[in-house]
Design a protein that fits this description.
The protein has about 375 residues and is an all-alpha fold. It has helices at about 5, 10-35, 70-85, 95-120, 125-130, 135-155, 170-190, 195-225, 230-245, 265-285, 295-315, 315-320, 330-360, 370-375, 375-380; strands at about 40, 45. It is globular, with a radius of gyration of 20 Å.
Length: about 375
């Protein structure tokens, strides 16, 4: 990410994430929640029984929980909002804003809601396959990471290639990562849907994985460059948060059995996520035709896949009710792998269909002149900074 490029697209990049709150906030309460959590239709999607929040009240609890149904809907809306916002990092500075709005509506409806139903709403991944995902490794992170790959390939690389530099505001990068780290406690611990031991365990494993991942990324940076990267620490923390998300409520700091490989699974998950993310970014940098601007695939896609797979390794029955490979249940590992592959296939194919449909109707990419000028002015008519 080059400083000049970011400065002229700061508003546009922020707006893409911010507008997801508005767009998905409407889609979710009208039909998105119903498609994800309505009565099961063939293990694939929910019905429209909750359309417009019909039959979603605050007096009765959501089935299987002790919290009001309306509160559960609002909590799930958080996941629905953040997931398309993650994808935007793959095409920063290139996509038309009007096309982005259409993309978000279509993507949440066609890609996100059915996948959420498969995993959390009583669909086939949860009931037939019996794969597990505590807080969104498949639904959120693999889904967004693979959608980012489709977007980067279809939208294409930035046409302004003669620039060099780094992030234009490193303190803001660190501040954003710190806010994410703090907010992730609600993301993961909140997925216990209670304030008991499961939530506490998810809280601690989340922090442990993020801390280990941040230190690992800094160490890798130090090893390769002789410098402890500030941005690397922030990116590493996010990689660790991503990877622990599907496992947070199924693994503990100390599993039931002994042995070196069994110790501190949250720390192992965090460390490996940084190693995988760090070297994926270095590898993809060699492919000049692939322009995932903010490394969404490396951090969220790869991190999510590792986290979902690691859940099948380190899950402990005494913690989350499901045993993994570490307790001799090798079948869980294969179930996790099938869920990963299903998520990858669904997200890539359906995201590609949506983007190609938009491309050949209303167009996806801004003009070269708009890209040169920067989308802050070209699309929004406002600059982020006053000279």
């Amino acid at each position: 990410m080059v400083a000049w490029f970011v400065q002229k697209n700061a508003n546009a990049t922020i707006m893409q994430s911010f507008i997801c709150l508005a767009v998905v906030g409407i889609v979710w309460v009208l039909w998105g929640y119903s498609l994800a959590f309505g009565n099961d239709v063939g293990g694939f999607v929910g019905d429209l029984g909750f359309f417009g929040l019909r039959n979603v009240g605050f007096d009765e609890a959501f089935p299987g929980t002790a919290i009001p149904h309306l509160l559960f809907m609002a909590f799930q809306m958080m996941f629905a909002v953040i997931t398309p916002a993650l994808i935007t990092g793959a095409f920063a500075g290139r996509m038309k804003f009007c096309s982005f709005i259409v993309f978000v509506v279509a993507w949440v409806t066609i890609v996100y809601a059915p996948l959420a139903h498969w995993v959390w709403g009583g669909g086939w991944i949860a009931t037939e396959l019996q794969a597990i995902d505590f807080a969104g490794g498949t639904v959120v992170h693999i889904n967004a990471g693979i959608a980012a790959v489709a977007a980067a390939l279809i939208i294409g690389k930035r046409r302004i290639t003669s620039l060099s530099g780094g992030p234009h505001n490193v303190p803001f990068v660190v501040l954003g990562a710190a806010l994410l780290w703090f907010g992730w406690f609600g993301f993961n611990a909140g997925s216990a849907l209670s304030s008991g031991g499961s939530a506490v365990n998810a809280f601690v494993t989340t922090n442990s994985a993020a801390a280990m991942a941040a230190l690992t990324w800094v160490g890798l940076s130090w090893f390769h460059t002789g410098k402890a990267s500030v941005v690397g620490a922030a990116v590493g923390a996010v990689a660790g948060l991503v990877a622990i998300t599907p496992a947070a409520g199924f693994v503990g700091l100390w599993p039931a059995s002994d042995g070196f490989l069994n110790a501190f699974p949250a720390l192992i998950i965090g460390a490996v996520s940084s190693v995988l993310g760090f070297y994926t970014i270095r590898l993809l940098s060699k492919f000049r035709s692939f322009d995932d601007t903010l490394d969404v695939f490396a951090v969220h896609g790869v991190g999510g896949m590792w986290g979902a797979f690691a859940t099948g390794i380190f899950a402990v029955a005494a913690v989350g009710g499901t045993a993994g490979l570490i307790e001799g249940a090798g079948g869980q590992l294969w179930r996790q792998l099938v869920a990963i592959l299903a998520t990858v296939g669904w997200s890539f194919v359906m995201t590609s269909v949506i983007l190609l449909a938009i491309k050949y109707t209303m167009g996806l990419v801004v003009t070269e002149e708009a890209e040169e000028e920067g989308l802050d002015l070209a699309e929004h008519g406002e600059t982020a900074y006053i000279a």
